[in-house]
Specification:
Chain B: Pfam families: Fer2, Fer2_2. Chain B: Residues 1-77 form the 2Fe-2S ferredoxin-type domain. Chain B: It comes from Oryzicola mucosus. Chain B: Keywords: 2Fe-2S, Iron, Iron-sulfur, Metal-binding, Oxidoreductase. The complex is a heterodimer. By secondary structure, chain A is an alpha+beta fold. Chain A is built from 19 helices and 31 strands. Chain A is globular, with a radius of gyration of 27 Å. In chain B, strand 3 (48-51) and strand 4 (54-57) form a beta hairpin. Chain B has six helices and five strands; from the N terminus they run E-E-H-E-E-E-H-H-H-H-H. Chain B has two domains: 2-77, Ubiquitin-like (UB roll) (Roll); 85-166, Orthogonal Bundle (DNA polymerase, domain 1). Chain B has helices spanning 22-29, 74-77, 85-92, 102-117, 136-142, 153-163; strands spanning 2-7, 10-15, 48-51, 54-57, 70-72. Chain B is an alpha+beta fold. Classes of the chains: A alpha+beta, B alpha+beta. At the A-B interface, helix 2, helix 4 and helix 17 of A face helix 1, helix 2, helix 3, helix 4 and helix 5 of B. Bound molecules: FE2/S2 (inorganic) cluster (2 copies). One FE2/S2 (inorganic) cluster sits between chains B (96-102, 148-150, 152) and A (194, 244, 473).
């Protein structure tokens, strides 16, 4: 039986609080942890069939044009080569998140430098790699490819629904007692998950099974079927473990389709893993952004106007554009608003989702501008933000579902020792280091996505959860087990969670921070359905039944679940859909960041010394994994502030730094022992768990706190991220 | 090319293409898929294994160069039923998220603790001749060859701190 819920209104039943198992919220270890630390968790390339062939992708080395010919004969003559795949079904780039259909296909038309155009398949990886290197392509370049968003020849779109104009911002700027009008840039970023995109395809008759590294299997199944021109019924995708995604694995990617085509032709399983360089070049990048922020404030520091303009880029024909201004309409007060969103069509690697598309870069820049305003107005940066928290969503004029920004700001300031900060830049020195503190607000929109899960309570009193949900490091295995254990009164060891198989009920998938809340709700509903069936057996009302430690307690009777079940197996499916609730209220998560940096007075190098994040995301389902998510997000912020930057050749747009030697992720020594505080909160508008997403909140604005700390330390305001030492040292003299 | 190695205490015979890296030999020929490939270029540390007592990036060396060498992989450090103290500490401290970099982190940390014991200094050691205290700063520095995009770094440091100094790891 299925229990269905459409989230049209608040859910104030607080079902989890009626339960007594005591699992939800606790810092429970990940149930799959032992497998991960012993090398037994099986990622995409870890269970290769004996007769597997290996494929290596070949990329185009022109920016825009045609693939005229490939010298497959010469390659086929090499030892071990089995086939060369190319043609109209090859993917140009991965599908965008939740597309549910194939992206642009065909290897004849080249749209960016690095586009995969062929797959060389051989008996061994070594032979395939050699074949891929040896494959000669005849490419015909069109000379006019636009590769820079600022190129006057770039076609620029301004989608109507993305532009907002309320009041008169120009007038507000004129009248303002204090104002900021500045331009900022953020470079492209790569998700750079540690597991490269990889797929192993295997056909049985007309059906293909793909073991891959993907985040949203229900959508990926539809995308793969569409790309191959077969029915969804004939596609199964397996992804029990995923070595990180961060948005890059939302949509089906070129290696999956190529592997499936090769396997079909050869009649054997084919494994294709992208090289690290291919991951950079042919999977999603976060668009670079050019932003202009205008802030107008009265003499008390109250905002009267906010302007946020953004220019981003993508390939021609792609739907996605980095939603830079997503949180600007509702974060701070101000009657006059102008939001401008422009998309330049250029020939660079496809742009798509990278952890927290929108706020990650948009809020970061807004928070740097707020720091500039605080200084101009002579108001403490924490105070300035608190003053400007609106009573309701100022753009849509709807109430907030819950709002803990003020609390996060106060709590953070208190814990970090913000009162010790000298607002005057360059006032603290430690040897050759300038030391300073900075802060920023955090905000991320909250979403609910349709999701299903099946819960089975078997006759032996153990429960099993089945859903095609993924755990990309987010803690899905832990939190789903905790929710089911809580609802059914079972210890963690008596709940088995099976994920990552499209034979199971389709879930939301992992993306947009909505996985835990959406799929967790489906599990909760499935458990409610099982409770209903248990009540029937016990002839009681749910309110009179307590489940704990494998027992049902009704009145003064305590009966083992096994005896209640008496040989029966109970199945409950949960199905949740978003509804009107998301239109009635503004749902978001909030937080604050505090950072302390040292800036070297000789080299301009910045070292992060301390960092604190305080977050409110509704009910925290697992204090341990939630904290880890925040650590991860904040570390992405450290990279964004200090080192991460995709560099494209100005002539042909090719990605110059397509590996870890040149694209600098934060390493262990770049990350101090970050402190994370999770605030107690419930959001009954979000879902019946009262939980909100937390996977992305930690990156939204984080880099702003570090850049603001650099200013406080040494007086250099960096507006072109990342704040590498060349930019800081340039300003050091002027700031003296 | 014929190569004989001792892997996790067992003699293993290999007859592989001379271009086969130690990492691919372990994964594709010896069915030890615990070691991961994150970059294949010596830039991430996911493939870290211990060869003759020292941690190396197994993607950066050819299997045939390791004839008669002694290799320890994550599978030789502990099993889900019998975790090493360090593996258990990674679980308790949540020293991973996706888990992909984790076998490399644990092999690396296991060998790193031996390096400290043997008195090797690091870039952040104030006195290169003194015995090093295992501070947060020392651990972070010495573990910086192992990238973790999920960024479990603070938890990895805590996990290592937990077992450092104790006889069992
Ligand atoms: S796979 Fe060997 S260092 Fe990255
Ligand atoms: S745990 Fe995911 S990369 Fe380290």
């Amino acid at each position: 039986m299925t229990l269905h819920l459409k989230m049209d209104d608040r859910d104030d039943r607080y079902r989890l609080d009626d339960m007594v198992q005591g699992l939800v919220g606790t810092p429970t270890d990940r149930p799959e942890g032992k497998l991960k630390v012993s090398g037994k968790a099986s990622y995409a390339m870890d269970v290769l069939p004996d007769d597997v062939c290996h494929g290596v992708l070949v990329r185009a080395t022109i920016t825009h044009g045609k693939l005229r010919d490939l010298d497959t004969e010469a390659v086929r003559a090499l030892p071990g080569i089995r086939t060369v795949i190319t043609g109209k079904r090859m993917l140009r780039n991965p599908a965008q998140g939740m597309a549910g259909k194939a992206p642009v296909q065909g290897s004849d038309d080249i749209a960016y430098f690095g586009q995969p155009v062929a797959l060389v398949v051989a008996d061994t990886l070594e032979q395939a790699r050699h074949g891929a290197l040896a494959l000669r392509l005849t490419l015909e370049a069109k000379g006019d490819a636009v590769v820079n968003p600022h190129d006057p020849d770039a076609s620029v779109e301004m989608p109507k629904k993305e532009q907002v104009l309320i009041g008169d911002l120009d007038e507000a700027m004129k009248k303002a007692a204090f104002s900021v009008d500045q331009h900022y840039t953020t470079p492209g970023h790569s998700s750079a998950a540690m597991e490269p995109h990889a797929s192993v395809a295997h056909w049985h008759g007309d059906s293909v099974t793909l073991r891959g590294s993907y985040q949203m299997l229900a959508y990926n199944k539809a995308e793969l079927a569409d790309a191959l021109g077969i029915s969804e019924k004939n596609v199964r995708i397996l992804a029990p473990y995923v070595g990180g995604g961060f948005g890059a694995k939302l949509g089906i990617s070129p290696e999956a389709v190529a592997a499936a085509l090769a396997s079909k032709e050869l009649g054997v399983p084919v494994a294709v893993s992208m090289t690290r360089q291919q991951v950079f070049e042919t999977t999603m990048r976060r668009s670079e952004t050019n932003q202009r922020i205008r802030l107008a404030a009265d003499e008390n520091g109250l905002l009267t106007g906010i302007g946020h303009e953004a220019l981003v880029s993508n390939l021609p024909g792609e739907d996605f554009s980095e939603p830079v201004t997503q949180a600007t309409p509702f974060l701070y007060r101000g009657e006059n608003r102008e939001i401008v969103h422009k998309i330049a069509r250029i020939h660079r690697t496809c742009a798509g989702s990278v952890r927290a598309p929108g706020e990650a870069v948009g809020l970061t820049v807004l928070e740097i501008a707020m720091d500039e305003l605080a200084e101009k107005a002579g108001i403490d940066p924490v105070e300035l933000r608190k003053k400007n928290i609106p009573d309701q969503d100022p753009t849509d004029q709807i109430p907030f579902s819950s709002h803990a920004l003020a609390e996060a700001l106060d709590e953070g300031a208190r814990r970090f020792g913000w009162d010790k900060r000298n607002p005057k830049p360059r006032s603290t020195r430690d040897g050759e280091w300038f030391v300073g503190m900075g802060m920023a607000s955090a905000v991320r929109v909250n979403m609910l996505i349709e999701s299903k899960a099946r819960v089975t309570l078997s006759a032996d009193g153990r429960a099993m959860i089945e859903t095609d949900m993924t755990d990309i490091g987010t803690g899905t295995y832990a939190i789903l087990g905790q929710i089911a254990g809580e609802m059914l009164g079972l210890p963690m060891e008596d709940v088995e969670t099976r994920l990552g198989d499209t034979e199971f009920p389709p879930a939301s998938g992992s993306g947009g921070s909505f996985g835990a809340a959406s799929n967790g709700t489906a599990v909760l509903l499935g458990c409610e359905e099982i409770r209903r069936q248990l009540c029937k057996k016990l002839n009681c009302e749910d309110a009179d039944m307590t489940l704990k430690g494998g027992y049902a307690i009704v009145g003064n009777k305590r009966i083992a679940l096994r005896d209640v079940l008496d040989g029966d197996t109970l199945v409950g499916e949960g199905h949740v859909q978003p509804g009107k609730a998301e239109k009635k209220v503004r749902q978001a998560t909030y937080g604050s960041y505090f950072a302390e940096v040292g800036v070297n007075s000789v080299t301009g190098e910045t070292r992060l010394r301390r960092m604190l994040g305080v977050f409110a995301a509704g009910r925290i389902l697992n204090a341990k994994t939630a904290r880890s998510q925040c650590l991860g997000g904040m570390t992405f912020g450290i990279g964004m502030a200090l080192t991460e930057e995709l560099i494209h050749d100005r002539r042909d747009g090719h990605m110059v730094n397509h590996d870890f030697a040149e694209y600098h992720l934060p390493v262990n020594a770049d990350v101090p022992q970050i402190e994370v505080v999770l605030l107690e909160e419930r959001d009954e508008w979000a879902n019946p768990l009262q939980a909100k997403g937390i996977g992305e909140l930690g990156i939204c604005g984080a880099a702003g706190s570090i850049v603001n700390a650099i200013y406080n330390a040494c007086g250099v305001r960096v507006r072109q991220l990342p704040a590498t030492l060349d930019k800081v040292i340039d300003g050091l003299d002027e700031a003296t | 090319m014929k190569t004989t190695l001792t892997v996790n205490g067992q003699l293993r015979h290999l007859d592989a293409d001379p271009r086969t890296t130690l990492l691919d030999a372990l994964r594709n020929h010896l069915n030890l898929t615990g070691s991961k490939k994150g970059c294949d270029h010596g830039q991430c540390g996911a493939c870290t294994v211990i060869v003759n007592g020292r941690r190396i990036n197994s993607c950066l060396s050819l299997a045939c160069m390791h004839d008669s060498d002694e290799v320890v992989t994550i599978e030789g450090i502990g099993t889900p039923e019998h975790l090493s103290a360090l593996q258990q500490a990674f679980v308790s401290h949540d020293g991973f998220q996706c888990g992909f970099c984790t076998p490399g982190q644990i092999c690396s940390a296991t060998a790193m603790l031996d390096e400290v014991e043997a008195g090797w200094p690091s870039h952040v050691s104030a006195d290169v001749t003194a015995k090093q205290d295992l501070t947060v700063e020392e651990i972070s520095e010495r573990m910086s060859g192992n990238l973790c995009r999920c960024s479990a770094y603070p938890n990895i440091v805590d996990a290592i701190m937990d077992v450092a100094g104790s006889a069992k790891r």
